Amino acid sequence: MNPTRILPDLQCSLPVQDIRQEVNGNLILIGVLNGIVVPQLPITLARLLFFSRWTAGVGRFKETTRIVAPDQVTTIAKLDANFELPDVTAHAMNVTALGNITFNAAGVYFVEVLVDDVMKIRYPMHVVVVPPPQTPPQKQPPPPSTTS
């Protein structure tokens, strides 16, 4: 008996700054993020990418990637993507690009990845404010002396 539908396993979900593709089709992940460090808040990020890899499933699926605010209720960004796994030995790599995400407060946000509304992973993403370093005031050179 061949199964027609098996929910897949999520092998990884990584927030990254950018993703490139080599000529041979392999993906290059650039800037895997441990968190988001900003000079001030609120701040709007033009783009935040998430890389996910699915395997060991069969069927057509909807992946949902969302970011939940520190209040644990408010979803500040969300995107769905469809993918298919023809058999349990196949895999699917998805890149989710969330755009114009506004972070209003520092704290612990959560990234959630679901498949067909079933939570597969939930992990913290810290948003930290680190002000830029202050440059010390420059000493003014003494005025040139005038001699007559």
Description of the structure:
The protein is elongated and about 100 Å long. The chain is an all-beta fold. It contains no helices and nine strands. The model has no long low-confidence stretch (mean pLDDT 93). The protein has strands at 9-21, 27-32, 35-38, 43-55, 59-68, 75-85, 91-103, 107-115, 118-129. The termini are far apart. The strands form two sheets. Strands 3-9-8-5-6 form a five-stranded mixed sheet, with no helix packed on it. The protein has one domain (9-129): Immunoglobulin-like (Sandwich), CATH 2.60.40.2550.
- Structure annotation, total helices: 0
Silhouette: elongated
The CATH topology assignment is Immunoglobulin-like
- Spatial sequence of strands, sheet with the most strands: 3-9-8-5-6
Strand content: over 45%
If you average the pLDDT, what whole number results? Answer: 93
Proportion in helices: under 10%
Estimated radius of gyration: 23 Å
* CATH architecture annotation: Sandwich
Number of strand elements: 9
